Amino acid sequence: MSGANAPEILAAYEAVRSDKDDTNWLLISYALAVGDKLTLSSTGTGGLSELTTKLDPSQAQYAYVDARDKGDLEEGEIVVRLRKAGGADYNGGRG
Known about the structure:
The chain is an alpha+beta fold and 95 residues long. It contains 2 helices and 4 strands. The chain has a single domain (7-82), classed as Severin, CATH 3.40.20. Helix content is 20%, strand content 26%. The two termini are 13 Å apart.
């Protein structure tokens, strides 16, 4: 995965983890239909319910959610790997 350490992705990750920022999720997608470059698709403050409105079943995506004290779940952090609809099972590669 290329681009996972892009400044905007790292900044969004730190914002989600920060107690001083209301951002509680981030969504990463592949930049192009072919290739392995990742890009930050979206961030938000509305928890899992907001994140689910941003998921695109035509893409393989990754999400990181901070559910601490947000009423979504018991306290914790969640990493989501979404494969595209009709895609092959993940086996370390892009779905």
